[in-house]
Amino acid sequence: MDSVTELLCHFGFSKNEARVYVALMQETSATGYQISKSTGISRAEVYRVLGNLADKGAVVWQQTEPALYMAVEPESYLDRLESQFNHNLQKVREELKEINRQTSNDTIVYIKGYDHILHKAKEMIASTRYELYIRCGATLAALLQDDLKKLSDKGVKVRILAYGDFSMEGIQVVTHPLRHDEVHRHRVSQLLLISDIRKMLVGQLEPESSGTVMGTYSESPEIIHIMREMMRSGFHLTILANESNVLSRFMGEHELFQEIYKDGSILRYE
Description:
The chain is an alpha+beta fold. The chain has twelve helices and nine strands.
Protein backbone atom coordinates (compact mmCIF):
# COMPACT_ATOMS: atom_id res chain seq x y z
CA MET A 1 0.00 0.00 0.00
CA ASP A 2 2.83 2.36 0.78
CA SER A 3 4.11 1.98 -2.80
CA VAL A 4 0.68 2.94 -4.20
CA THR A 5 0.47 6.08 -2.07
CA GLU A 6 3.99 7.04 -3.11
CA LEU A 7 3.09 6.60 -6.78
CA LEU A 8 -0.05 8.69 -6.39
CA CYS A 9 2.11 11.48 -4.98
CA HIS A 10 3.80 11.63 -8.42
CA PHE A 11 0.41 12.50 -9.94
CA GLY A 12 -0.49 15.56 -7.88
CA PHE A 13 -1.72 13.89 -4.68
CA SER A 14 -0.43 15.01 -1.31
CA LYS A 15 0.60 12.21 1.03
CA ASN A 16 -2.63 12.48 3.04
CA GLU A 17 -4.75 12.66 -0.12
CA ALA A 18 -3.15 9.46 -1.36
CA ARG A 19 -3.73 7.72 2.00
CA VAL A 20 -7.38 8.76 2.14
CA TYR A 21 -8.05 7.77 -1.47
CA VAL A 22 -6.48 4.33 -0.98
CA ALA A 23 -8.43 3.86 2.28
CA LEU A 24 -11.68 4.68 0.47
CA MET A 25 -10.80 2.20 -2.28
CA GLN A 26 -10.95 -0.52 0.41
CA GLU A 27 -14.49 0.44 1.45
CA THR A 28 -17.81 0.66 -0.37
CA SER A 29 -18.36 3.97 1.39
CA ALA A 30 -17.19 5.59 4.62
CA THR A 31 -17.82 8.61 6.81
CA GLY A 32 -15.14 11.13 7.65
CA TYR A 33 -14.95 9.66 11.15
CA GLN A 34 -14.37 6.13 9.81
CA ILE A 35 -11.67 7.35 7.42
CA SER A 36 -9.96 9.23 10.25
CA LYS A 37 -10.00 6.10 12.39
CA SER A 38 -8.61 3.81 9.64
CA THR A 39 -5.88 6.19 8.51
CA GLY A 40 -4.89 7.81 11.79
CA ILE A 41 -5.36 11.27 10.24
CA SER A 42 -7.24 13.82 12.33
CA ARG A 43 -10.92 14.37 11.45
CA ALA A 44 -10.39 18.03 10.61
CA GLU A 45 -7.58 17.11 8.21
CA VAL A 46 -9.63 14.25 6.72
CA TYR A 47 -12.50 16.60 5.82
CA ARG A 48 -10.07 19.08 4.28
CA VAL A 49 -8.46 16.27 2.26
CA LEU A 50 -11.86 14.91 1.15
CA GLY A 51 -12.72 18.38 -0.16
CA ASN A 52 -9.47 18.44 -2.16
CA LEU A 53 -10.11 14.96 -3.55
CA ALA A 54 -13.64 15.97 -4.55
CA ASP A 55 -12.15 18.96 -6.41
CA LYS A 56 -9.80 16.58 -8.21
CA GLY A 57 -12.74 14.36 -9.20
CA ALA A 58 -11.32 11.42 -7.25
CA VAL A 59 -14.07 11.28 -4.61
CA VAL A 60 -17.87 11.58 -4.61
CA TRP A 61 -20.28 11.60 -1.65
CA GLN A 62 -23.86 11.01 -0.61
CA GLN A 63 -25.73 13.81 1.13
CA THR A 64 -26.64 11.71 4.18
CA GLU A 65 -26.18 12.44 7.86
CA PRO A 66 -23.29 11.99 8.28
CA ALA A 67 -22.11 12.22 4.68
CA LEU A 68 -20.83 9.03 3.06
CA TYR A 69 -17.76 9.27 0.82
CA MET A 70 -16.78 6.93 -2.03
CA ALA A 71 -13.67 6.72 -4.20
CA VAL A 72 -14.21 7.10 -7.92
CA GLU A 73 -13.44 3.84 -9.72
CA PRO A 74 -9.66 4.02 -10.40
CA GLU A 75 -9.74 3.11 -14.11
CA SER A 76 -12.20 5.91 -14.82
CA TYR A 77 -10.30 8.41 -12.70
CA LEU A 78 -6.88 7.49 -14.13
CA ASP A 79 -8.22 7.77 -17.70
CA ARG A 80 -9.41 11.28 -16.89
CA LEU A 81 -6.08 12.08 -15.23
CA GLU A 82 -4.21 10.85 -18.31
CA SER A 83 -6.41 12.93 -20.61
CA GLN A 84 -5.85 16.06 -18.51
CA PHE A 85 -2.10 15.41 -18.38
CA ASN A 86 -1.85 15.00 -22.17
CA HIS A 87 -3.95 18.12 -22.72
CA ASN A 88 -1.75 20.17 -20.39
CA LEU A 89 1.41 18.69 -21.89
CA GLN A 90 0.30 19.68 -25.39
CA LYS A 91 -0.62 23.16 -24.19
CA VAL A 92 2.79 23.62 -22.55
CA ARG A 93 4.50 22.33 -25.71
CA GLU A 94 2.63 24.85 -27.88
CA GLU A 95 3.25 27.74 -25.48
CA LEU A 96 6.98 26.98 -25.27
CA LYS A 97 7.18 26.62 -29.06
CA GLU A 98 5.53 30.03 -29.45
CA ILE A 99 7.94 31.60 -26.95
CA ASN A 100 10.85 29.99 -28.80
CA ARG A 101 9.57 31.40 -32.11
CA GLN A 102 9.35 34.89 -30.63
CA THR A 103 12.95 34.71 -29.42
CA SER A 104 15.52 35.59 -32.06
CA ASN A 105 18.14 32.88 -32.17
CA ASP A 106 21.24 34.26 -33.84
CA THR A 107 23.55 31.83 -32.09
CA ILE A 108 25.82 29.56 -34.08
CA VAL A 109 26.71 26.37 -32.26
CA TYR A 110 29.45 23.90 -33.09
CA ILE A 111 28.96 20.15 -33.35
CA LYS A 112 31.97 17.85 -33.10
CA GLY A 113 32.14 14.33 -34.47
CA TYR A 114 30.94 12.56 -37.59
CA ASP A 115 28.16 10.63 -35.85
CA HIS A 116 26.80 13.72 -34.09
CA ILE A 117 26.72 15.78 -37.28
CA LEU A 118 25.06 12.94 -39.18
CA HIS A 119 22.49 12.52 -36.39
CA LYS A 120 21.71 16.24 -36.48
CA ALA A 121 21.25 16.09 -40.26
CA LYS A 122 18.80 13.19 -39.93
CA GLU A 123 16.94 15.02 -37.15
CA MET A 124 16.62 18.15 -39.30
CA ILE A 125 15.43 16.16 -42.31
CA ALA A 126 12.75 14.39 -40.24
CA SER A 127 11.41 17.68 -38.84
CA THR A 128 11.24 19.50 -42.20
CA ARG A 129 7.69 20.46 -43.18
CA TYR A 130 7.93 22.50 -46.39
CA GLU A 131 11.27 22.42 -48.20
CA LEU A 132 14.74 21.00 -47.84
CA TYR A 133 17.87 22.10 -49.68
CA ILE A 134 20.90 19.89 -49.38
CA ARG A 135 24.34 20.06 -50.98
CA CYS A 136 26.65 17.14 -50.38
CA GLY A 137 28.71 14.37 -51.91
CA ALA A 138 27.05 11.34 -53.46
CA THR A 139 28.24 9.01 -50.68
CA LEU A 140 26.68 11.16 -47.98
CA ALA A 141 23.48 11.57 -50.01
CA ALA A 142 23.24 7.78 -50.20
CA LEU A 143 23.56 7.56 -46.39
CA LEU A 144 20.62 9.96 -46.04
CA GLN A 145 18.59 8.36 -48.82
CA ASP A 146 16.01 6.60 -46.63
CA ASP A 147 15.41 9.77 -44.58
CA LEU A 148 15.05 11.84 -47.75
CA LYS A 149 12.59 9.38 -49.27
CA LYS A 150 10.36 9.47 -46.18
CA LEU A 151 10.36 13.25 -46.41
CA SER A 152 9.56 13.26 -50.12
CA ASP A 153 6.74 10.75 -49.57
CA LYS A 154 5.12 13.31 -47.25
CA GLY A 155 5.02 15.80 -50.11
CA VAL A 156 7.90 17.95 -48.86
CA LYS A 157 10.00 19.58 -51.59
CA VAL A 158 13.51 18.13 -51.55
CA ARG A 159 16.28 19.57 -53.73
CA ILE A 160 19.74 18.02 -53.79
CA LEU A 161 22.89 19.45 -55.33
CA ALA A 162 25.17 16.41 -55.49
CA TYR A 163 28.91 16.13 -56.00
CA GLY A 164 29.26 12.80 -57.73
CA ASP A 165 26.78 10.39 -59.29
CA PHE A 166 23.54 10.25 -57.31
CA SER A 167 19.86 10.08 -58.22
CA MET A 168 16.56 9.51 -56.42
CA GLU A 169 13.16 8.85 -57.89
CA GLY A 170 10.71 11.67 -57.16
CA ILE A 171 13.40 14.07 -55.90
CA GLN A 172 15.07 16.86 -57.82
CA VAL A 173 18.78 16.02 -57.92
CA VAL A 174 21.24 18.23 -59.76
CA THR A 175 24.76 16.87 -60.28
CA HIS A 176 27.63 19.35 -60.16
CA PRO A 177 29.77 19.22 -63.35
CA LEU A 178 33.20 19.29 -61.66
CA ARG A 179 35.60 16.59 -62.82
CA HIS A 180 35.47 13.45 -60.72
CA ASP A 181 38.95 13.82 -59.23
CA GLU A 182 38.05 17.32 -57.99
CA VAL A 183 34.73 16.11 -56.66
CA HIS A 184 36.43 13.40 -54.67
CA ARG A 185 39.21 15.62 -53.42
CA HIS A 186 37.32 18.74 -52.39
CA ARG A 187 33.56 18.31 -52.06
CA VAL A 188 32.57 14.72 -51.46
CA SER A 189 32.68 15.06 -47.66
CA GLN A 190 31.03 18.49 -47.34
CA LEU A 191 27.44 19.06 -46.25
CA LEU A 192 25.17 22.10 -46.42
CA LEU A 193 21.58 21.51 -45.33
CA ILE A 194 18.81 24.12 -45.02
CA SER A 195 15.43 23.16 -43.58
CA ASP A 196 12.32 25.35 -44.03
CA ILE A 197 14.48 28.52 -44.14
CA ARG A 198 14.64 28.06 -40.35
CA LYS A 199 17.57 25.75 -39.64
CA MET A 200 20.96 25.32 -41.25
CA LEU A 201 23.70 22.74 -40.81
CA VAL A 202 27.14 22.99 -42.36
CA GLY A 203 29.54 20.12 -41.85
CA GLN A 204 32.68 18.37 -43.02
CA LEU A 205 31.93 14.67 -42.75
CA GLU A 206 35.03 12.56 -43.10
CA PRO A 207 34.51 9.10 -41.55
CA GLU A 208 38.23 8.42 -41.33
CA SER A 209 38.60 11.32 -38.87
CA SER A 210 35.16 10.92 -37.30
CA GLY A 211 36.09 12.16 -33.83
CA THR A 212 37.59 15.46 -34.96
CA VAL A 213 35.35 16.61 -37.83
CA MET A 214 33.39 19.78 -37.13
CA GLY A 215 30.02 21.21 -38.09
CA THR A 216 28.04 24.35 -37.35
CA TYR A 217 24.31 24.66 -36.70
CA SER A 218 22.34 27.91 -36.82
CA GLU A 219 18.78 29.22 -36.69
CA SER A 220 19.82 32.79 -37.53
CA PRO A 221 17.25 34.05 -40.11
CA GLU A 222 19.74 36.47 -41.68
CA ILE A 223 22.46 33.86 -42.24
CA ILE A 224 20.02 31.21 -43.44
CA HIS A 225 18.35 33.51 -45.98
CA ILE A 226 21.73 34.45 -47.43
CA MET A 227 22.90 30.85 -47.62
CA ARG A 228 19.62 29.70 -49.15
CA GLU A 229 19.88 32.29 -51.92
CA MET A 230 23.49 31.24 -52.53
CA MET A 231 22.38 27.63 -52.78
CA ARG A 232 19.51 28.50 -55.14
CA SER A 233 21.97 30.36 -57.34
CA GLY A 234 24.22 27.31 -57.25
CA PHE A 235 21.33 25.15 -58.45
CA HIS A 236 20.55 27.54 -61.31
CA LEU A 237 24.16 27.78 -62.42
CA THR A 238 24.66 24.03 -62.21
CA ILE A 239 21.54 23.32 -64.26
CA LEU A 240 22.77 25.77 -66.89
CA ALA A 241 26.21 24.17 -66.86
CA ASN A 242 24.72 20.70 -67.28
CA GLU A 243 22.65 21.92 -70.22
CA SER A 244 25.58 23.60 -71.94
CA ASN A 245 28.82 21.82 -72.81
CA VAL A 246 30.51 25.18 -73.29
CA LEU A 247 29.55 26.43 -69.82
CA SER A 248 30.42 23.10 -68.22
CA ARG A 249 33.85 23.12 -69.85
CA PHE A 250 34.31 26.74 -68.75
CA MET A 251 33.54 25.88 -65.13
CA GLY A 252 35.87 22.90 -65.24
CA GLU A 253 38.80 24.64 -66.92
CA HIS A 254 38.63 28.39 -66.22
CA GLU A 255 41.36 29.66 -63.91
CA LEU A 256 38.87 31.41 -61.58
CA PHE A 257 36.88 28.24 -60.93
CA GLN A 258 40.08 26.25 -60.46
CA GLU A 259 41.20 28.79 -57.87
CA ILE A 260 37.86 28.72 -56.03
CA TYR A 261 37.72 24.94 -55.80
CA LYS A 262 41.37 24.00 -55.58
CA ASP A 263 41.42 23.52 -51.79
CA GLY A 264 37.74 23.56 -50.74
CA SER A 265 38.49 26.56 -48.52
CA ILE A 266 34.93 27.89 -48.57
CA LEU A 267 33.75 25.16 -46.22
CA ARG A 268 37.03 24.09 -44.71
CA TYR A 269 37.50 23.57 -40.97
CA GLU A 270 40.83 23.82 -39.26
